[in-house]
Amino acid sequence: MINKIAQWEARHPKTVVLIALLLIIPSVIGFIGTRVNYDILSYLPEDLESMQGEEVLDKTFNNAGMSIVIVEDMPAKYTEALKEEISEIDGVSSVMWTDDIIGTQTPVSALPDVLKNIFYSADGNKTMMLVKYTNSGSSDETLNAIKQIKKISNEKTFISGVSAITEDTKELADSQAPIYIAVAILIALVIMSVLMESWILPLVILAALGIAIIYNMGTNIFMGSISFITQAIAAILQLGVTMDYSIFLIDRYEEEKLKFTDRCDAMASAVTKSFTALIGSSLTTLFGFVALCFMQLKLGFDIGFVMAKGVVFGILTVILILPEIILLCEKAINKYHHKNFIPRFGKLNGFVYKHRRIFAIMFVVLLIPAYFVQSKADVYYNLSQALPDDLVSIQGLNTLKTDFNMATTQFVIIDDSVPSGKLTQMEDEIKNLDGISSVIAYNSIIGPAVPDSIMPEAILKICKQGGKQMIMVNSTYNAATDELNSQIDKMEQIVKSYDENALITGEGALSKDLVTTTDRDFLVTSILSVAAIFILIAICFKSLSVPILLVLSIELAIWINLSISTLMGTEISFVSPTIINCVQLGATVDYAILLTTRFREEIQLGRTKKEAILNAAEASERSILQSASVFFGATFGVYLICDISLIKGICALLARGSIISALVIIFFLTPILYVCEGVINKTSLGWRRNKKQNAENSESEVKTDA
Question: Among candidates 678, 531, 689, which has minimal Cα distance to 601?
């Protein structure tokens, strides 16, 4: 079947390329129509109480995306006028300030302490108002409303809250994405031009892989939306991990041209003979991404599914489109041919072989400390740490911390049937917890004796709705810290004693659940990715020992990568270890498979172990260098430009990981394969072809080791 397809496409290159180009049109439309989600916390499992609380805030109080607007050193009339302007913005439900309670005629000094402590800074120079939105906190309408608030505000006005941070993230990502994608492609193009023997061939490969990337990103419309992290790194990752397939096909085509007089027949033969190897090679990468889909944090499915889809499109493009583009551009490819700039690795391989025992021992010795050190990596969960300090939302957050003693805000949702006296008692218990700076509740603002019928509508909308009462609790502790997590646990014990169905939500509660969820996800995805790739390698090599050696070699590269962050004191985001463990394992284990496959081929040709390992290393290192360099260049380009530290950090680890994996294969796996060849033979089916070869290799091994 594949042979017939290959023969037909080789004879009709213009038709195939035309169809491929036409398919770009719906893909671009799909890409434009795909919504991007900038709220990572929205990917938490829906059965968590913090997420259930967000649902109540959204549906009952229209409050899931409340923002805090801070005004500095401005008269009350300006603040009142700003409040009215904000109230008229589409997507804003209501705005609450002191004038909703006592009017603007009362000076700050005469305000009741409870209002002064809530709405004014300690020095009285800054005041804040609470803004509620009509839609959910991460909706397009809410983000547009925040954008309008920033437009009408002066330089002494700041806006903070999760929704404001989300909007700043959107603006930053949207403005920088085209730049760092262009830089990444340019770096990859330069690297490919140097490492390949034609100035045109890299452009041909990028054109084909670019089509695959457009197809992948366009079909994301069927998912409804994708995360901004996926949007930022998917194209770069797809380019890096599918580059191997293009190189593999091109190398095979060069071999087949020596056997056929007709280049169309040569290409059809190259596609046919490469098909099985390409499918096998892609499965390891595919399984690495599929493992991400099993994360409880739905962000994992978002990234994993899109990237798994990208691998499939990459393979299909290499098989169905790249051959035709090569045939159409072959004259230009050959015309702009240049000498090979890749150095020979004979001396390096000789050095590694000469010191093979030392490198093999180093491999074993490094495993335990590398695993231990990487487990101590400093991980951050606070999403505000991922953004630059000069953004409006981060400036607002810092102002809340320093002037209002509010690092985070939690919302307690409790049944309105609880007697007011009990609620006052509960609020007092919460206030007495260490780190609580203020509690904004209906009772504390109005008092339990005032009937609802004479209260301003704005206050009732914020505090009481649908038989529920909302209490806003401000903490001096930062999100995702042990202090805040402990405080939330104590708060939960208090509120549950008054209403067992009470819920606590907000940035702190969501971040606390994020810590628990991602810790579990890292363990599950690590086990799944290792197990899946282990089984695949075991089947491919019909061996028990080969998958152990290959997976351990890449796991060592991963541990060294993360250990460098630990030793450098660099904080990494909560998703980085999971993504690195799956992506680096799935994408770079191909290097190990390539070397091992060639080693087995050389052994089966009757070479001695020394000849086999040196030939295998020499033949494999060119492809390993090309693949690792392109992967490095693409991800490093994002690292250079991106100001969102979460994305920047992931790309830094991926760039570094590609190089470390290549070095581990060259310096550690090569001698390990040589030293363990006898064990591999005994634990693998058909590793050597016959008994005579077994005896020859065993005799050679004894002589060489002697």
Answer: 689
Q: Extract the tokens encoding 536.
A: 């695949």
Separate counts of helices (H) and strands (E) for the chain: 27, 13
Section 659-675 average pLDDT: 94
Single out the residue of 168, 155, 154 nearest to residue 67, CA to CA: 168
Which of 157, 168, 150 minimizes the C-alpha distance to 399? 157
pLDDT in tens, 388-431: 888 999 999 999 888 888 888 899 999 988 988 899 899 999 99
Express each pLDDT in 638-651 by its tens digit: 898 899 898 999 99
User: Phi, psi at residue 502, to the nearest 5°?
Assistant: -65, 150
The DSSP code for 98 is G
CB 457 within 8 A of CB 132: no
Provide mean pLDDT across the span 528-538.
92
Cβ atoms within 10 Å of 66's Cβ, excluding its own:
24
Mean confidence (pLDDT) of the chain: 88
Q: Which residues contact 22 (CB under 8 A, 6 or more apart)?
A: none
Q: Is the pLDDT of residue 102 over 80?
A: no
Has residue 241 got a pLDDT over 90? Answer: no
Joined tokens for residue 450? 């005032």
Cα angle, residue 391 at apex, residues 385 and 392 outer, rounded to 5°: 115
Q: What is the pTM of this model?
A: 0.87
Counting Cβ atoms within 10 Å, is residue 218 exposed (0-12), middle (13-18) or buried (19+)? Answer: buried
CA dist 534 and 4 (Å) reads 33
Helix, strand and coil in the chain, % to nearest 5: 70, 10, 20
Residues 161 and 132: their CA atoms lie apart, in Å, by: 11
pLDDT for 154-192, tens place per residue? 888 999 988 899 999 999 988 988 888 888 889 989 988
HEC letters along 539-574: HHHCECHHHHHHHHHHHHHHHHHHHHHHHHCCCEEC
> Residue type at 469?
Q
Q: Which residue has the tokens 């996926």?
A: 230
547-565, pLDDT tens digit by residue?
Answer: 999 999 999 999 999 999 9
> What CA–CA distance (Å, rounded) separates 598 from 600?
5
Distances (CA, A) of 6 to 101, 209, 271, 273, 328: 77, 19, 6, 10, 15
Structure tokens at 632: 């490095």
Phi, psi (rounded to 5 degrees) for 472: -100, 120
CA dihedral 516, 517, 519, 525 (to 10 degrees): 170
Q: What is the C-alpha radius of gyration for the chain, rounded to an integer number of angstroms?
A: 30
Cα separation of 119 and 127, whole Å?
5
